[in-house]
Amino acid sequence: MIKYSIIKNLLVFLFVYVPPLVIFIRFSRERNKSKIVLFLIAIFYMILSVFTNNLLPFILTAINIKYLRDANRSHNFYKDQCSLCLSKHNFKETISSRLSNDFIRFGFTRKKFNIVSAIKSAAFSYMVIFMISIIEKIIISMFSVQVKDQEVVTEMSNMPLNKFIILIPIIIIFAPVVEEFVFRWLIFEKIFIPRIGIYFSALISSVIFAFIHFNLKAFPLILWIGLYNCYLIEKKGYWYSVFNHFTFNLVTTMVLLAQKLPAI
């Protein structure tokens, strides 16, 4: 049991916490930040992340999104001011140059985010989640399968109200921002699609996303969220996938909170 817990925490750390740090360091090195300072930041980040859940990955993700915005602005500025600087002869490729179009291409700019459209997308997603839940309950009942709730759900159900309230922003805000950045933008869009195409990329990245939550009962629901959010970031933008993820976590969290309130 202890080995399982160690392996689980290690995988979560590698898939969720490490990628924002790697991207942050790549951008920072490009800006000639001190290697010693970055090393110290990395050490403190890895240690403190164990105790702060998604807080530090959220902060680095926000900084990385800002770096993507800066890369887009710098690219456009130099393209307008000096086309010669962008020639293959004079132009040295950097992480900013490679990702210069991503801020607009994948909808990191909030200007293109429409709340009404996002609500419609999230409503559709939740209808599918509701249907999956019904089918899952029928299958579980038919075959008398014993499945446990997701560990974080169980922990939050048994958690004192004051600690539960502290966790709310971590669950409904920090987690969606970080996980969509890692699983949809980085793994799905940047790592998998150039190598295996959009459909296999959506499937494999969503399976990894569902697996990393380590719960058989929640697996079909999380798999759907992953697949649908791949569609959202590809067709509408990053903040649409974040909003859909946020909605799912919000509803789950509010249900758990409502169960606690009568006991006050």
3D architecture notes:
With 264 residues, this protein is mainly alpha-helical. It folds into 2 domains: 2-105, no CATH class; 113-263, no CATH class. It has 11 helices and no strands. Helix 6 (115-143) packs antiparallel against helix 10, helix 8 (161-196) packs across helix 10 and helix 10 packs antiparallel against helix 11. The protein is globular and about 60 Å long. The chain starts with a helix and ends with a helix.
Layout of secondary structure:
Layout: H1 2-30, H2 35-52, H3 55-81, H4 95-98, H5 102-105, H6 115-143, H7 151-157, H8 161-196, H9 198-211, H10 219-235, H11 238-260
Keywords: Hydrolase, Membrane, Metalloprotease, Protease, Transmembrane, Transmembrane helix
InterPro entries: Rce1/LyrA-like_dom
GO molecular function: endopeptidase activity; metallopeptidase activity
Spell out the key features of this protein.
264 residues, hydrolase, Rce1/LyrA-like_dom, globular, membrane, 79% helix, 2 domains, mainly alpha
